[in-house]
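= Tokenised fold =
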Amino acid sequence: MFELSQHHEDFRAMVRDFAEREVAPYVAQWDREHHFPTDLVPKMGELGLFGLVVPEEFGGSADPESGPFTALCVAIEELGRVDQSIGITLSAGVGLGINPILTYGSAAQKERFLPDLVAGRALAAFGLTEPDAGSDAGASRTRATLDGEEWVVNGAKAFITNSGTDITSVVTVTARTGDTKDGRPEISAIMIPSGTPGFEVAPAYDKLGWNISDTHGLNFTNARVPQENLLGERGSGFKQFLKTLDDGRIAISALALGLITRMREEATAYANTRIAFGRPIGANQGVSFQIADLAMMEEAGRLLTYKAAHLKDEQEQGRRSVAEVKQAAAIAKLYTSEAAVTATRIATQIFGGNGFMEEYPVARFYRDAKILEIGEGTSEVQRMVIARNLGLPS
């Protein structure tokens, strides 16, 4: 059921070739310099990576019957196998940038933004997390009030991917636009184009990992945008970002899977060539058993990831429920993200002192892995989602 089609495997080979040619030779330097390779994004666009889930009318290539979301996960996995920052650039660019506009945008909003985003001429971001409201997204302090025919936005967002590049065209932010009848916050999504007066992008974060990825805080001080920049219906922002996060969790699972695969490859190659006490260290059970564990994690992660992706594609065809996808996404994301952290620890241990040296890729992946347990919902949030879906009391 979860074996990928020949179409997807052929696509995997194409993306892997691209990643090995256009990304692998440069990532060590990009990581050292904390450099976001803006010129790589149009190349990804030319390959069609940003348009995998987008209809042809907006420049994409989505064919509902060919598993477009599964194809996106294949691309994220293969890019993530070479570098996690590049993988998250695609994942966030589509899942958090393009998808909200594609799913909830008006015809005018789609026509304005999607063609450039699909082509890789621009990137979009999604501003949800706030300095004082992480997993508790309903506690958003960012506010948007109507003044005539304009929204006036005030507040701040934190840890926003693809938000400060030279080609970022728009950030969709969640903001409190009032209160519901029962007194709860009314959360709406509003699109704020780059360059809007009062919209300030903070300096890039000094991060533990994902050094190539573009990540900033955002500040809004009386930032004014037209009323029609509301994305979807007023008050629907909470439902919109929950749906966005469900899909994004599958993509993060694919990203983590790429990391696990790379750690298994690196550890196996090193164990076959590193000689200690007159023989390859892979001849020792203490090493070989750990690599066997990596293979097990990879296989389990692959099945969980592509089961969830398959269910997502099925849901788009009306053949699966939202609840099924939500549960599969949480399970896949939880398992693969935690397995990825373990995989980097195992690989680094097998490399010994060399694993602590930046000249070996396992060091970069070790730094990159931890955020997988945090972004798109922490491990604790995933366990909460899984438990609730099992019928346990909230």
